[in-house]
């Protein structure tokens, strides 16, 4: 009814964390406000006030500097200065008005006594940037768990038991009969030994009967072991459904036996079977479905059609509140499926590979952090057995696959880091030399390449080729302080901004920018740090979160800092995905430029916290090397 | 008016008037108010206790028009404390004129639930004792308050005042360029000084808005540490 003080309470209610309070309590808080006015270029607190007070900016601007006179941050309308509530910060930061400033101040103890039922208020002001971010991500992760099923559900929710088996001595016909009788498409082939203990030796599917028996004219009285797949992939039962999807995608299999403890308590026993259909039925129109239709695509044109679904999938996942990690992994899995399918098409045209090779993804795809229609980074590692006459085959493969991927929207790498470039299509020994050179004589260009090639993963072919290169590399980088110093110096050139000032991004030297490049000034610095930790500690993982988890507690990074960095990384990732989802929905090309105008007050707060977390670890990196 | 006379006389005049009015005032709130000395004009401004006051009225003329609502808030040590704020609608007899209702947005219904004039004036007098009254455009508040005191106590007491409109006017006059009177409006002056928009024509909001404006005006005056009360007093 009354409008007196209505403006002030409306103003207060729009500012985090007061926006979480009921209106009646806000009115009580308003009554506790003191209004004061401070001319430009004056120190805070005004009038030599000593008690702990919060200062809420109604109009004007504050500038924070550290004891070296370095700009720390700027604050303006609707932001809160809590420096004088924290005894530790009071001496660390100097606060001055930059403009004539109208402040609403609240006695901190009085505030706390009014909001005892709302501990989030005290937490908001007293927590460090990392702690606030952790709280935010805890909430986000809960949402993600609710919204996503594959990544957060154990494979046990999808598999079926028991696993049906057949003895390796039994005939192909007996296998077919058993499948028909049980209405299943797959049997595990076992070797029955004494005392009834059976060891799994392979797997046979109805497809094997069609392809390896009927099509080949093989007699169905032959033992089933003749047509089984011997090196059978399995997964431990504590894995997530998502792990199963990844494994089935990379191996191009539809059936995956799950291992666990037997009733007798022995580990390694086959306990269940999961099929790609089990996973698909669960998630409707999604990554699993797309992966599975990619496998069935017969031509590049089919693949192009399917690739159009990718942005839609990414939008849908982002809108569902799925974690950035999950989305990156899903899109990467799909890119992997595209690549494998195109390689298969190429092999169909040009015949089988003359010598073993590995098709390797680099950069974001390898890290499983790819987004729809990003550019392709790839390479070929060819067995050292390769002969000059084989070169044409690999050249054909590379150009076919790179062109095919480009047709599907994975644009050709502007830096020409692709297998179609002869420089990146080399025998294993040349790759050993490349890495040897990058690590032992680090030059800026070498390290630029390094940042792409230090993140690599086998998409198709002989994994050992890459694994050997990687282990040799890691042996050279681990504890190599000269190399790590160069890598660190390179990585530290990308700095997060200090924060925001009005509708601008505030850069360290006090300059303003109209938009935030969330990729280069937020996400990339974390990716770079994680890479340095991994190379320093000899960690083989390439996914940023995995690298951070594995490096946590090592000399490179503490457990706590790693957890903070993961929170920051996830938060920035989600923000980027939401931003891109909005652009994609509006029919615009996705980019990484966030306009501060479009960010909510809370998002700005969380961003500033994320920047602080990154900056702290960059600073500590800088002082290490 | 008084402001044309030499400083010495009108300062002396306020205290002399206070004592004369005190002698005539009946026992009660007005006498209590008048029993406290007005602040010494030589007191530094920063040490003065100020009460920013605003009235909403049915019109501009104290004789015929009525007080509708009163809002006030204290300013101490250049800080406005919302804890000490007061806002009250007054229960008057007359029906409200529709044109006015649009401005102050106090309806007849709200007015019916208001407090009696005497109660409101006494609350104001109590808060005002020993303080200087701050207003924007002194004539309205002075005349309506004196008229109310005359009606309630038979005495029209003096009220030492600071007027943000007069401060602005003096500054404009010094510049010796023509200006539009609308430039002296509270909202216009606030805008010029970079203060945020406020919801005008609510007595408490206007009192706060006036107090903020005074803080800005004081901070802009050269060497504001040496300012004393008589530099600003009407």
UniProtKB/TrEMBL annotation, chain A:
One of its GO terms (molecular function) is [protein-PII] uridylyltransferase activity. The keyword Repressor does not apply. Residues 159-220, 228-292 form the CBS domain. The keyword Repeat applies. Pfam families: CBS, DUF294, DUF294_C. It comes from the Bacteria. Keywords: CBS domain, Repeat. This is Cyclic nucleotide-binding/CBS domain-containing protein.
TrEMBL record, chain B:
GO terms for molecular function: 3'-5' exonuclease activity; nucleic acid binding. Residues 49-223 form the Exonuclease domain. GO terms for biological process: DNA metabolic process. GO terms for cellular component: cytosol. InterPro entries: Ribonucl_H, RNaseH-like_sf, RNaseH_sf. The keyword Transit peptide does not apply. Keywords: Exonuclease, Hydrolase, Nuclease. SMART domains: EXOIII. This is DNA polymerase III subunit epsilon.
């Amino acid at each position: 009814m009354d409008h007196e003080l209505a403006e002030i309470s409306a103003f207060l209610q729009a500012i985090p964390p007061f926006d979480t309070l009921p209106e009646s309590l806000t009115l009580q808080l308003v009554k506790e406000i003191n209004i004061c006015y401070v001319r430009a270029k004056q120190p805070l607190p005004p009038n030599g006030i000593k008690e702990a007070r919060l200062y809420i900016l109604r109009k004007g601007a504050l500038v924070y500097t550290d004891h070296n006179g370095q700009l720390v941050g700027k604050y303006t309308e609707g932001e809160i200065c809590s420096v004088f509530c924290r005894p530790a910060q009071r001496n660390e930061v100097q606060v001055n008005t930059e403009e004539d400033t109208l402040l609403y101040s609240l006695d901190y103890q009085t505030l706390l006594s009014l909001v005892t039922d709302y501990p989030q208020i005290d937490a908001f002001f007293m927590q460090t940037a990392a702690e606030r971010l952790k709280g935010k991500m805890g909430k986000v992760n809960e949402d993600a768990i609710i919204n996503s099923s594959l990544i957060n559900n154990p494979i046990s929710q999808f598999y079926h038991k028991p696993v049906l088996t057949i003895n390796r001595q039994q005939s192909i016909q007996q296998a077919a009969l058993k499948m028909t009788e049980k209405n299943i498409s797959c049997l595990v082939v076992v070797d029955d030994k004494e005392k009834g203990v059976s060891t799994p030796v392979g797997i046979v599917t109805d497809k094997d009967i069609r392809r390896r028996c009927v099509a080949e004219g093989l007699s169905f009285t032959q033992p089933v072991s003749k047509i089984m797949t011997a090196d059978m992939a399995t997964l431990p039962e504590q894995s997530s459904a998502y792990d199963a999807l990844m494994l089935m995608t990379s191996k191009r299999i539809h059936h995956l036996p799950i291992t666990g403890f037997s009733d007798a308590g022995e580990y390694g026993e086959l306990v269940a079977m999961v099929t790609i259909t089990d996973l698909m039925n669960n998630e409707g129109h999604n990554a699993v479905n797309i992966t599975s239709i990619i496998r069935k695509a017969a031509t590049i044109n089919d693949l192009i059609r399917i690739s159009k679904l990718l942005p839609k999938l990414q939008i849908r996942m982002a809108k569902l509140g799925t974690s950035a990690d999950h989305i990156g992994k899903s899109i990467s899995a799909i890119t992997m499926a595209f690549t494998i399918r195109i390689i298969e098409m190429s092999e169909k045209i040009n015949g089988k590979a003359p010598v073993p090779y590995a098709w390797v993804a680099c950069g974001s795809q390898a890290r499983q952090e790819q987004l729809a229609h990003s550019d392709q980074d790839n390479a070929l590692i060819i067995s050292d057995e390769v002969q000059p006459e084989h070169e044409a085959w690999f050249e054909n493969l590379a150009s076919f696959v790179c062109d095919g991927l480009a047709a599907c929207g994975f644009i050709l790498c502007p830096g020409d880091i692709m297998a179609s470039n002869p420089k990146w299509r080399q025998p294993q020994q040349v790759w050993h030399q490349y890495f040897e050179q990058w690590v032992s004589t680090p030059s800026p260009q070498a390290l630029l390449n390094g940042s792409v090639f230090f993140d690599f993963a086998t998409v198709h072919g002989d994994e050992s080729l890459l694994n050997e290169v990687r282990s040799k590399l890691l042996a050279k980088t681990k504890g190599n302080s000269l190399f790590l110093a160069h890598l660190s110096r390179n990585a530290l050139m990308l700095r997060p901004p200090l924060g925001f000032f009005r509708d601008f991004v505030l850069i360290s030297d006090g300059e303003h920018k109209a938009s935030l490049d969330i990729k280069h000034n937020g996400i990339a610095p974390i990716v770079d740090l994680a890479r340095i930790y991994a190379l320093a500690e000899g960690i083989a993982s390439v996914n940023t979160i995995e690298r951070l988890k594995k490096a946590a507690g090592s000399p490179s990074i503490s457990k706590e800092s790693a957890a903070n960095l993961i929170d920051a990384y996830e938060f920035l990732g989600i923000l980027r995905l939401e931003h891109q989802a909005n652009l994609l929905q509006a029919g615009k090309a996705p980019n990484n430029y966030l306009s501060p105008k479009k960010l909510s007050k809370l998002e700005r707060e969380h961003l500033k916290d994320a920047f602080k977390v990154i900056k702290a670890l960059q600073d500590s990196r800088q002082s290490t090397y | 008016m008084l402001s044309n006379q030499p400083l010495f006389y009108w300062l002396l005049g306020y205290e002399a008037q206070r004592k004369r009015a005190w002698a005539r005032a009946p026992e009660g709130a007005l006498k209590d108010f008048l029993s406290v000395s007005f602040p010494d004009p030589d007191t530094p401004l920063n040490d003065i206790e100020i009460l920013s006051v605003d009235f909403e009225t049915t019109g501009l003329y104290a004789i015929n028009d009525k007080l509708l609502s009163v809002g006030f808030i204290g300013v101490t040590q250049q800080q406005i404390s919302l804890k000490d704020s007061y806002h009250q609608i007054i229960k008057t007899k007359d029906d409200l004129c529709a044109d006015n209702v649009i401005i102050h947005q106090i309806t007849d219904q709200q007015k019916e639930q208001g407090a009696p004039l005497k109660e409101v004036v006494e609350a104001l007098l109590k808060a005002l004792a020993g303080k200087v009254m701050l207003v924007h455009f002194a004539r309205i508040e002075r005349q309506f308050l004196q008229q109310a005191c005359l009606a309630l106590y038979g005495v029209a007491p003096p009220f030492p005042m600071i007027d943000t409109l007069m401060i602005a006017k003096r500054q404009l006059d010094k510049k010796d360029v023509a200006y539009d009177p609308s430039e002296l409006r509270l909202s216009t002056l606030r805008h010029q000084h970079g203060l945020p928009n406020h919801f005008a024509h609510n007595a408490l909001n206007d009192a706060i808005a006036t107090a903020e404006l005074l803080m800005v005006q004081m901070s802009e005056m050269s060497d504001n540490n040496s300012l004393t009360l008589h530099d600003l007093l009407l």
